[in-house]
């Protein structure tokens, strides 16, 4: 574009008139306006091209994404991937829950997520911390309203699927609301609606897990109490109840405590097969609970509350076993030591495969094992109690009686080695000929006085467990303890493990076993779990590599 100038004849010899100057300025301004106008048109055109370019870029990326393999995966495979992600996920319901995130990736994923009802079967609700003052009430109410909407959404999207319900109420466990705030929470319409919505889905409950506080003695109508008092006809699919509660003011006249043992409730469900009761739950006699004990297959009882007059012991455990004849797995905490009458008949538990016991001290009662008939027992865990411990020799240990009685079938054993002397530990290991998984534990729950001879994971122990071989690689050690170990686990404090001897034991058990040794019953060690033990003397990985031992499965934290 050419913009001519009318001032070319202006020079030093010519003096223009005012009119000529004004006319020249006007024409120059008009030319400038045309230039600026054209520039604005070009800028607008450029912006339009840039916008079009971005649109075209997105189109190109969309079409390129079609090459990504995930877009070619059929819906069934995609659904399986979604479910595998959520199987072990314990996230509470929220807008950031993986199921929600998956449903917002793209249209195809959203359709798959919304039509996969089991993707929404985990209803994990965390109750907001109770308001401690009136200034916090409105904010708390808003959180509850949001939680109500999310709960409705989850229940709706789960369709007719059975639900795994987990309700977490940390506000209650950490002391509950004060008197004024408690009255507000009890009467809060939104909070009552939340509990009512959860209870309305009870016909689809399969698992109910309550980690919750019930300030019932102070607030008899506290909404969360209704979660325990749902009648059995409203829970036709309930198979598992896990209860970790803090029932405030544990006492006999507490209405909630009384209801747990005297009325029909969630424990009365005819389909109940698994029951887990935490330590701060039971005040009354456990056997008064309206449970069909003979139907239970899995039982975990962590003892009575500290305020209860009851204490669970081995004699009561035998009475419980007599009622629970179909148990497959069981974990019991023994809260006191008792002598078991000699004339008592043994209790058969034909199906019991896994038994875990936490003794009152660190020792199982003598004579306890002989009152049990466990033909199917495969796994035995004896976790230490708390307090001072005097290590025992083999003959004085109740644990050794379990090993002697059930040695033909035991395959997986874990126990506290600090409850035994060194010779007692060696003798116990000699009575585990079929164990493939062995755990030796000292987690700090018990203390032993100096000079009491408590066992350690020392070089003598590892030499005791290590086979010797001839030049052909055949084991020549006779009557080796625990010849079939494939997995070895230990929990120990710093400097409690003979580290070099441990490496020699691993090498002997893993690299030196040939086919002839295997035929004689000596198994190859596959895995060692050290549970974050802090090695001080050697680097076990490097030491084993120098010995040309395969390290792929060793020292799993």
Automatic annotation (TrEMBL):
Keyword Coiled coil annotated: yes
Keyword Coiled coil applies: yes
Keywords: Coiled coil
Chain segments annotated as coiled-coil in the UniProt record: 25-59
Name used for this protein in its record: F-box domain-containing protein
């Amino acid at each position: 574009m050419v913009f001519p100038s009318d001032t070319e004849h202006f020079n030093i010899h010519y003096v223009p008139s005012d009119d000529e100057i004004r006319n020249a300025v006007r024409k120059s301004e008009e030319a400038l306006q045309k230039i600026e106008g054209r520039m604005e048109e070009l800028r607008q055109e450029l912006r339009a091209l840039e916008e079009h370019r971005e649109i075209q870029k997105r189109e190109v990326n969309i079409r390129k994404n079609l090459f990504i393999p995930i877009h070619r995966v059929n819906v069934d495979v995609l659904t399986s991937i979604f479910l595998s992600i959520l199987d072990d996920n314990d996230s509470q319901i929220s807008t950031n829950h993986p199921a929600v995130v998956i449903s917002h990736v793209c249209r195809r994923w959203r359709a798959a997520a919304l039509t996969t009802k089991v993707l929404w079967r985990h209803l994990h609700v965390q109750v907001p911390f109770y308001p401690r003052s009136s200034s916090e009430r409105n904010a708390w109410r808003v959180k509850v309203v949001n939680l109500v909407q999310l709960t409705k959404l989850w229940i709706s999207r789960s369709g007719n699927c059975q639900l795994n319900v987990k309700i977490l109420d940390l506000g209650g466990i950490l002391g509950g609301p004060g008197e004024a705030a408690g009255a507000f929470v009890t009467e809060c319409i939104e909070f009552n609606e939340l509990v009512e919505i959860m209870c309305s889905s009870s016909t689809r409950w399969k698992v109910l897990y309550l980690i919750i506080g019930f300030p019932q003695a102070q607030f008899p109508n506290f909404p969360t109490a209704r979660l325990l008092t749902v009648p059995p006809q409203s829970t036709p699919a309930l198979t598992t109840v896990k209860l970790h509660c803090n029932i405030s003011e544990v006492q006999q006249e507490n209405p909630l405590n009384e209801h747990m043992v005297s009325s029909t409730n969630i424990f009365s469900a005819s389909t109940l097969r698994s029951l887990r009761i935490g330590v701060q739950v039971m005040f009354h006699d456990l056997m008064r609970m309206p449970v069909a004990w003979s139907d239970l297959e899995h039982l975990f009882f962590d003892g009575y509350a500290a305020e209860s007059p009851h204490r669970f012991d081995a004699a009561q455990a035998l009475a419980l076993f007599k009622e629970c004849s179909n148990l497959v797995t069981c974990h019991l905490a023994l809260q006191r030591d008792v002598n078991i009458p000699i004339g008592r008949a043994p209790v058969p538990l034909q199906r019991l495969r896994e038994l875990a016991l936490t003794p009152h001290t660190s020792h199982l009662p003598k004579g306890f094992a002989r009152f049990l008939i466990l033909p199917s027992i495969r796994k035995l865990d004896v976790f230490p109690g708390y307090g001072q411990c005097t290590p025992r020799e083999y003959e004085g240990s109740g644990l050794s009686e379990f090993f002697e009685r059930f040695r033909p079938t035991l395959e997986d054993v874990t126990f506290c080695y600090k409850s035994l002397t060194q010779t007692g530990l060696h003798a116990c290991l000699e009575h585990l000929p079929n164990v493939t998984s062995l755990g030796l534990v000292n987690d700090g729950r018990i203390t032993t006085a100096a000079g009491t001879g408590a066992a350690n994971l020392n070089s003598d122990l590892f030499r005791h467990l290590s086979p010797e071989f001839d030049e052909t690689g055949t084991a020549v050690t006779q009557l080796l303890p625990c010849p079939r170990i494939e997995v070895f686990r230990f929990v120990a404090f710093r400097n409690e493990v003979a580290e070099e001897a441990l490496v020699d034991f691993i090498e002997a058990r893993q690299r030196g076993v040939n086919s002839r040794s295997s035929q004689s019953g000596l198994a190859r060690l596959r895995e060692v779990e050290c549970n974050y033990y802090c090695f001080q003397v050697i680097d076990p990985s490097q030491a084993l590599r120098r010995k040309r031992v395969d390290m792929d499965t060793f020292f799993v934290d």
